[in-house]
Amino acid sequence: MESPMQTPTVADAARQIAARRLSPVELTQHLLGRIDAEDTALNSFILVTPERAMADARAAEARIMAGEARGPLDGIPIAHKDIYGTAGIPTTAHSKLLQGWVPDTDATTVRKLAEAGTVMLGKLATHEFAFGGPSFDLPWPPARNPWNTDHFTSGSSSGTGAAVAAGLILGGTGSDTGGSIRGPAALCGIAGIKPTYGLCSRAGILPLSFSLDHAGPMAWTVEDCALLLQAMAGFDPQDPASADRPVPDFSADLHGGVRGLRIGVARSWNDDRPVSPAVQAGIDSALDIWRAQGAEVRELALPSLYDYQAANYIVLVAEAFSLHEPWMQERFGDYGELLRDRMAYGGLIAATDYVQALRMRRELCAATAAAMQGLDLIVTAGAPAEAPRIDAVPKWDNLARPSFTAPFNLTGWPAMSVCSGFGVDGLPVSVQIAAKPFQEATLFRAAHAFEQAADLRAKRPVPAPRWTVEVAT
Length: 473
What we know:
This protein is an alpha/beta fold. It has one domain: Amidase signature (AS) enzymes, CATH 3.90.1300.10. Helices cover about 40% and strands about 15% of the residues. It has helices at about 10-20, 25-40, 50-65, 110-115, 160-165, 180-190, 220-230, 270, 275-290, 305-330, 335-345, 350-370, 395-400, 405-410, 440-455, and strands spanning about 45-50, 75-80, 120-125, 170-175, 190-195, 215-220, 260-265, 295-300, 375-380, 415-420, 430-435. A hairpin with a 5-residue loop joins β10 and β11. It is globular, with a radius of gyration of 21 Å.
């Protein structure tokens, strides 16, 4: 078997491993070496687990050599956002409150990915309890953007976004309550999907907002996300919101193209949240490619982004505070400043506010479904602009301005961010594509068609050896 010279995609590695041209053991050793050499600049990992990784890799290689491979993910090195419970391995949520906590069991998705044969490299940085960041007053520093370490990754699946982009892992897990898979995917120039609400179990994943939380994969390409989601998806009676329905083959029609698909463009949302020239150029490029490939593109009238944002934020902070209230009363000072202030806001929300937000949510879901009659997909910006500097992110940024991602948490519809180009200082930009519930296969088909035609996956960031931002002590 050949030694790897650079980080392959999940799909490429799977093909090479199956053909016995790539060793899972050597691939894992290569990535552990890269993490050791490069992650001091990125802080994408909270914990690296080399012993577990090598044991997983040796077991995968033995299965493959014996002709007993478990599938395309056997021997593929990944890592988990550190809100995913891992049996016998610390899970901290990037918070002092859980420093040293070791779960007894794996999250359902962690177990399913392990059963598929993946190699676990470790636990990845997040924002504190998937909500408070970027913070500089926690036991671990925030993850940094590998395209420029002075810049933000977005949140809260920040470590996964950084590690995938830098090629330290082939794929990883994320969670998304208002955009925390799609935001880091957008700013780090990778692919990330928030599946339909209920498609992936959240059992064993530390919650933030029970009616908005989604679990999903992040990787370098759309195809890689499809392969990872295949292993993660499925009914789980331990999650009350889990959907009891068959899981389709997400890769079966991946190369089917977009001919005949009807795509709606939510241009009015740009009036609510203007986008940078590079972001708009990426959206225009995607639409041109899909038109040329035979898709129909139409304008789409949707409610204001501010309406989605208002309902999403009230529901999120109210549900989050309901979970954290005992700790907020007893250990308020152990939270980081950003999480403290953002979470405490939930204690000021009246029951009437929460009920009105739920009513607005129902109205917005109905309006979105009505607007999508006769359409298959929605296209928007993934993020409004290139990544800001990490020391210039306002504390109340997620409250002051609406996001392009929150509407699809509120509706529970599947949505993903895909790199659509590069803007100021070579920082990546992205396009967001959303579909109707449980139409992930259609979503992957369109995203893959764009990704292949745009041909942006050959360019990887080169992480700087250090950063220049002053870190608060």
